[in-house]
Design goal:
Blueprint lengths: L1 H4 L8 H27 L6 H12 L20 H7 L7 H26 L8 H11 L1 H9 L3 H16 L3 H14 L7 H6 L3 H18 L7 H11 L10 H8 L3 H26 L3 H19 L12 H5 L11 H11 L10 H36 L9 H5 L3 H4 L25 H12 L1
Length: 448
């Protein structure tokens, strides 16, 4: 049966054309990224310090010895993360790196499938190859694999957490989030979603897991206290290299502190207003609320805190996928201009205009994250003001959103063919257009 799916066929519908065209492109792109680009590597190697720290941990040597005066990647995981990741050093470096690349690639693929299912799409839908190709064409997936870091596993943890959160499987959701926080605190802002939903068991479990793992790792480590006395303070410092956060770029361009804080506080106000509108008017629309709020929280944490790096943007895939929802805040062109800024693998360094090219390259991620937050604020704010003017509060969505088919049920949304026009009974029976049957067949095919 599986081989029959590979049998060459001529597409009969638009949906078939898109699927037949995109699946080979998506699969070959995945193979290239995993087995060519990632294995080839790059001058930036996030895996080497992690492997060395794991090797030192297994051999009872000091782990937190990084030279923070250099710009090379440093080992920054806490003792709990060291405990979890130490098995990678059981084999030699090269084979270990290959296995870690494969682990992250598999994690990203599982996350891709879970993301499809979260929005009620199947592998037979158009969304499957579109999403797969988009993910593996992005900077965040490419550099996660090439630099060989743990972000692919964090994306899988995020997807598992969101699904378990929505299903009210609080203990398991807390365990998954806690394990991710034990390695890196990237997903820690998502705890706020559990707090406002009053899922206290989830919160308690997520906090307890890294604490318990730290307690286990402490007596097994040679210098665990140095993470808190030496590494943690460095994490809260603002560095002026490989840092797309507002304070990082402010340091690089020499902005005065008052201007930097003005920008940060202004953006913080926009974020707080957006989160308030989401909580006040959308928390019952669970999928929209959770995916949108998670995107706002994570983007704000990278943009406003001391460190934000471009490949963190992988964690925004659930938020970006929410574009299939009728009331998504991403159904406008400025949102996708923002997405281009922080997901595109294009380089803007220019030999002809070096200063302009360098500024575009260094600032596009910061501007992309910032524009995304501005778009969310403007869309939600406009909906709120329009609803207040027309007396629709507490319902913010206009009638056309509420009455439209839900993409989570149909699985197609705007990919579906338009319905035939409604005719007045007085007009009498009309001949069906020749292409109407084909449109119905096409719609059914897309829904599959």
């Amino acid at each position: 049966m599986f081989l029959r799916q590979l049998e060459p066929r001529t597409a009969r519908t638009t949906a078939d054309v898109i699927r037949f065209a995109l699946w080979p492109l998506a699969v070959m792109t995945v193979l290239n990224r995993v087995f060519i680009k990632a294995v080839n590597g790059f001058v930036t190697d996030d895996y080497k310090p992690v492997y060395q720290a794991s090797l030192d941990f297994l051999n009872g040597r000091e782990v937190y010895t990084a030279n923070f005066d250099s710009v090379d990647p440093h080992y920054l995981y806490p003792p709990s993360g060291t405990l979890l990741i130490a098995p990678i050093a059981v084999i030699d470096y090269e084979k270990s790196r290959w296995l870690f690349i494969l682990l992250n690639a598999v994690a990203i693929l599982i996350a891709w499938y879970l993301l499809l299912r979260l929005f009620n799409y199947t592998l037979r839908s158009i969304a499957a190859p579109v999403l797969l190709l988009a993910m593996f064409m992005s900077e965040t997936v490419i550099n996660t694999l090439v630099f060989t870091n743990v972000n692919g596993c964090l994306l899988l943890a995020e997807m598992l957490f969101l699904i378990l959160l929505l299903r009210r499987r609080d203990v398991w959701a807390g365990v998954v989030l806690g394990l991710s926080m034990a390695v890196k605190p990237t997903l820690a802002p998502l705890l706020l979603i559990a707090v406002v939903r009053k899922q206290w068991t989830l919160v308690a479990t997520a906090v307890a897991v890294p604490i318990a793992l730290t307690a286990v790792a402490w007596p097994l480590s040679r210098d665990p206290e140095r993470f808190f006395t030496r590494t943690a303070p460095y994490l809260f410092e603002t560095r002026d290299y490989f840092n797309s956060a507002i304070p990082g770029n402010a340091e690089y361009y020499g902005l005065p502190p008052w201007l930097t804080w003005t920008i940060r506080l202004t953006m913080a106000v926009l974020v707080l207003v957006s989160l308030w509108i989401l909580y006040r008017y959308y928390r019952e629309d669970e999928l929209f609320f959770v995916t949108t709020a998670s995107g706002v929280l994570l983007t704000a944490s990278w943009l406003l805190a001391s460190l934000g790096q471009m490949y963190y943007s992988m964690m925004l895939f659930p938020f970006l996928m929410s574009v299939v929802l009728r009331n998504s805040v991403l159904r406008n062109w400025p949102a996708w201009l923002a997405v281009f800024g922080f997901l595109s693998y294009d380089k803007w360094l220019s030999d002809r205009w070096p200063d302009i090219g360098r500024n575009l390259e260094y600032l596009r991620i910061t501007f992309g994250w910032g524009l995304l937050l501005v778009v969310v604020f403007c869309v939600l704010g406009d909906r709120y003001l329009a609803a207040r003017r027309t007396g629709r509060l507490p319902r913010l969505d206009p009638v056309w959103m509420a009455d439209a088919p839900d993409s989570r049920d149909a699985g197609v949304d705007d990919f579906a063919a338009p319905a035939p026009p409604v005719r007045s009974p007085a007009a009498g029976p009309a001949a069906e257009p020749e292409s109407a049957g084909a449109r119905v067949v096409e719609t059914q095919a897309v829904r599959s």
